[in-house]
Amino acid sequence: MGFSDFSLFFAISAIVLSAFVHAAFGFGFPMLATPLLAIQSNVQNAILFSLFPTIVVNLITLLYRRDGGPSVFHFAPLAAYSVIGTLFGTQLLINFSPEPFRLFLALIILLYLFKEKLAMHKITWIKEHQTFSMLIFGLLAGLVSGTTNIMIPVLLIYLTEIEVERNLMIRVMNLCFFSAKITQVGQFTAAGLLDTTSLIISILLSLAATIAILVGFRFRVYISNNFYDVFLKFSLYIMAFVLIFQFLASHLSHTW
Questions:
Q1: pLDDT tens digits for 229-243?
Q2: Is residue 16 part of a domain?
Q3: CB-based contacts of 217: which residues, under 8 Å, 6+ apart?
Q4: What's the number of CA atoms in the CB half-sphere (13 Å) around residue 106?
Q5: Could you tell me if residue 143 is inside a domain?
Q6: Handedness of CA 47, 48, 50, 54 (dihedral sign)
Q7: Contact (Cβ atoms closer than 8 angstroms) between residue 248 and residue 256
Q8: Cβ of 67: how many Cβ atoms within 10 Å?
Q9: What is the domain extent for residue 137?
Q10: Which of 22, 34, 126, 170 is the most exposed place for a label (fewest CB within 10 A)?
Q11: What is the pLDDT of residues 176-196, one digit of tens each?
Q12: CB 64 within 8 Å of CB 58
């Protein structure tokens, strides 16, 4: 895999910024890193180069945020379902264009954000049928993670609706993404996409991510619950519009 069109300095800067935000809020690394890295490469390369940094960031977050609260492994089935979804999603990424899935995910996010205006209010079936909804949202999260590298919106919708508290929500999301990325390592290796060049780059970016997230953890104490809630909704809006923009940009590039 070539690296001639990809700026290492830009990549490190993108990884450092993404890891810092992730440290402060508990999530956000792939949703920032993927579109930033894709600016100077493409979506598949962006996912490949961020693969090991994402694993490192998620693992450090899981270890750092152990607070003696409810066990994150209560949501192990959710992580397992996301792994199954990732297996399918990654195959779609390898063999097909991920663009339709970007638009699909963006529409899901916007539907959730405007649910009150659409008189949906609480999506009661999610909490009333948690076993079934865990299966559906786990598979969907894995599917969109495999194709777009962004599963957080799907997990946020599910975990918010069943009223999971903040620290546990952060650990659950990191567990799911960690599990999904481990799965992708095997798939990309089997497909011959994880070559020596991409591995070296990914290791360098992992070191940058490690330093940035350890520094960023010092700032998380300044994040209030109210600000965190506002940031969640703001992040969903940004993710939706970024996904729509990427879909339109790809579509227009093909038509031109």
A1: 787 778 778 878 877
A2: yes
A3: 23, 64
A4: 17
A5: yes
A6: positive
A7: no
A8: 9
A9: 8-255
A10: 126
A11: 999 999 999 888 888 888 888
A12: no
Amino acid at 72: V
Location of structure tokens 């920032």: 32
Write the burial class of residue 222 (CB in 10 Å: 0-12 exposed, 13-18 middle, 19+ buried). exposed
In a domain, 144, yes or no: yes
Q: Which amino acid is at 47?
A: I
Sign of the Cα torsion 95, 31, 202, 53 reads negative
Tally of structural domains, the chain: 1
* Residue numbers in the chain where pLDDT is lower than 50: 1-2, 4-5
Residue type, 254: H
Type of residue found at 87: L
* Residue 171, in any domain of the structure: yes
Tell me which amino acid residue 33 is. Answer: A
